[in-house]
Structure to design on (63 residues):
């Protein structure tokens, strides 16, 4: 059976593998405003292949 991908393949942001089942996770990290140069906290919803990868990615964002 040729199962053509019906959905565009989303790669996991942490491990880089194509996510069969995309898991969305809110990632909170710190960035710096390019105009005012002031640090701020931003929240982004990113795609991962598992909650495990999402958790590891979040840990990498925290100092
Ligand atoms: Zn992953």
């Amino acid at each position: 059976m040729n199962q053509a991908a019906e959905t565009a393949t989303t790669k996991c942001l942490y491990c880089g593998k194509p996510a069969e089942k995309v898991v969305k996770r809110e990632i909170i990290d710190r960035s710096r405003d390019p105009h005012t140069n002031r640090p701020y906290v931003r929240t982004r919803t990113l795609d991962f292949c598992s909650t495990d990868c999402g958790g590891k990615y979040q840990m990498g964002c925290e100092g």
In short: Helices lie at 51-61. The beta strands are 10-11, 18-19, 23-32, 39-48. The chain has a mean pLDDT of 89. DSSP finds one helix and four strands in the chain.
